[in-house]
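Entry for the shared binder. Reason: the reviewer on the internal report wants the predicted structure included alongside the sequence.
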Amino acid sequence: MDNMGIQNKTKICVIGAGAIGAYLGVRLAHSGAQVSVVARGKTLESILARGWVLEDGGERLVAKVQAASDAREFGPQDIVIISVKAYALSDIASMVPSLCHADTIVIPAINGIPWWFTDGLSNSERLPRLESLDPQGAIASAIEASRIIGCVVYASCYSPEPGVSHHSSGERLVFGEIGRCPDALNSNRLDRVVSRFNAAGLKAEGTQAIRQAVWEKLLGNVCFNPISMLTGSPTDLMIEDSATYHLFVAMMEEVIAVGAALDIPVEMTPQQRLAITRKLGGIKTSMLQDTEAGRPVEVEAIVGAFVELAERLKMPTPIASTIYALAHMRAKTLKLLKE
């Protein structure tokens, strides 16, 4: 992609103007990229009226960007960032082809296990498309796997009002090619993406093991998110409670065991993972935030897909399966499931 150099006007479209979309999009716009965003409703109205706002460490950044509800208004882009909730992917996937030229890169900055995760795994014949993530195959059909650079976002953000994102903690962004054996061209493509995001003041890094990065984040997410929704508790209170702490350790051991069966090593213990999260203070997980706001929750991407993977491998995960069943029922009772 010759026109994606740092000194050039990189064209970037962000699909999804929520907290993470703004965290990335506003920073990229301030670094000189030509940013557009697909948004709807009050969020679209706010961005058009006063710009896209990011509150970060006492700094308030406002980016004047193109914004529309129809991606076709923007034309082909160099990078497409997908930052919607996992349950909305099937609704927006059809937008992506209109935003692509021959070398367009698609970066799904999403939570939980992504729909592309089983593509290219060494035992992929046992792990076809995950029904919990892409039941009709619409996402995989619309977004070519060769375009995708995987992304793991460690930033914690929330949206206090439409069109505004507040960055509260965490900065790390991990990018990687999703193919098992990236060629030299793809390696160069990854380097350019990392450079582009770092030039925007974001803490980006590349990896040759993006699934391992996904799994290491999942190690915490599969525990913290559903249990915070069930208990209404932030992460610090849960970790400080002895019984919940030991529950987290047992769940993480299940995640580590399933990862090992997928040839995905986890290079930290449950205790180390818990210590990292404890240092961040009282974080409200995304599922807790969504529950409190009455929004649909990502129970399938964060917990359901893990349980499905384990079932495909015929590996028992009694604790995670129980938590998933309870979280799914809780979300159903509150009418927070996106069917």
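Summary line for the report: The first strand starts at residue 11 and ends at 15.
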